[in-house]
Structure prediction request, 516 residues.
Amino acid sequence: MSDTKRMVKIFDTTLRDGEQSPGCSMNVAEKIEVAKRLELLGVDVIEAGFPASSPGDLESVRTIAGAIKRSGVAGLCRALETDIDAARDALQKAEAPRIHIFLATSPIHMEYKLKMSPEQVLERAVSAVKYAKKFCSDVEFSAEDAFRSDPDFVCKVFAAVIAAGASTVNFPDTVGYAMPAEFGERIRYVMEHTAGMEGARLSVHCHNDLGLAVANSLAAIAAGAGQAECTINGIGERAGNASLEEIVMALRVRKDYFDADTRIDSAQIYPASRLVSQVTGVKVQPNKAIVGENAFAHEAGIHQHGVMANPATYEIMTPESVGISKNELVLGKHSGKHALSERLANLGFNIEGKALDDVFTKFKALADIKKTVSDRDIEAIVIGSAGAAPEKWKLDRWVINAGSSVSATSAIRLEGEDGGMREAVHFGNGCIDAAFSAINNLIGKEVALEMFELGAITGDADAQGEAMVKISYDGGIWNGRGVSTNIIESAIKAYIAAINSMEAEPAGRRQSAMGS
Prediction:
């Protein structure tokens, strides 16, 4: 093995392909928080969105492009001049912009979706890349559904777009159909049979329909691919995308096999995972590799004995290497700001000044209720503050009356942004329905509840309840999250948080994005 490892680029599409998946929408403030975390993580390229899909998406890409300095920022486009114009406008302030063009090359997509001949697809692809090259030196072309395409046709298209100026060509397994061995062989074939391939980087974009997205991505890297397209926690269309954390740590743990690495700061992986989970409302399964709650948990006595003697007996990587603290620091109501600041740093949060003061205030309030405050509690406080919309409405007080022989009744009092108080009493089909109906009455809008989930942040008896809601109104969709030691209060806070997001971004999010 050579001492000089091949560097694989990480192209993160959490904010585009990840956000397209049902239930994963984010507001602009949340997208900025995620983008900054991806930049801190060391992602090479952040695909910020699909500018032509909506004015809101164009504006969010533009905002991210202006905020990110150390990572490239990409905008996705169909092979249309109007889409490319939108991406050009959105990426004007980016330090390292990339225009990412996609066009399907498989027979089924060309016949039924595009209604174009292979010759027309080839011509359109070349024309789009040439047009994009006028505005941006870094152009990527994706052959959507490449794995189900004729390999020689893909090579022909790739050769033509490279000649037209594409610096990266992407080979997606759009529907997650490939097996790792054949995917690796296909990547070798494309690299060997594409004219001009030595002047471009070959990328892969794998979906997880058969649970093989990471395996296929790694097979492609072993075969010579130089870029992997992936998402935090593997979120994405249908069964999701290849998981960034799994690809990165597989390369790092098995460097003897791959002789390849990335520039990812792996200690930032867990904080990034938690942030994405919180802002999308999509929880990470406990047994998820690298970032799941059980990834570094040992219950069996034999395992515990081995880990106590030497962690390497059952851990092929250290929890610290991915940003998880091995030993929990117990914090309570007598802890000071310095101890909290140190714990935050250990958890991967660099918080200072007023932001630290705000977190400390919330920490002390929680510590007065709970005996000890766990790492998960602290993460919930920090991430709950990240990307929060301005509070047009604040919860002042609430009362719920309910029982097996009486209808649930809620009395909710909200403080408006003008400082005025409004109160409403409402009956409902249960405590939550009564509370949410009262809030609708107070704001004067019939907001619909699309999703409601309750969970516990920790497993102890005095755990905080974590509520996640999704609301819709006038065609828009917004998320909200609330945390409290009282589960009803956490639900009310989550509903109000979603409403505040709605008031801050009236256009909401309407599903219209596409991609490879």
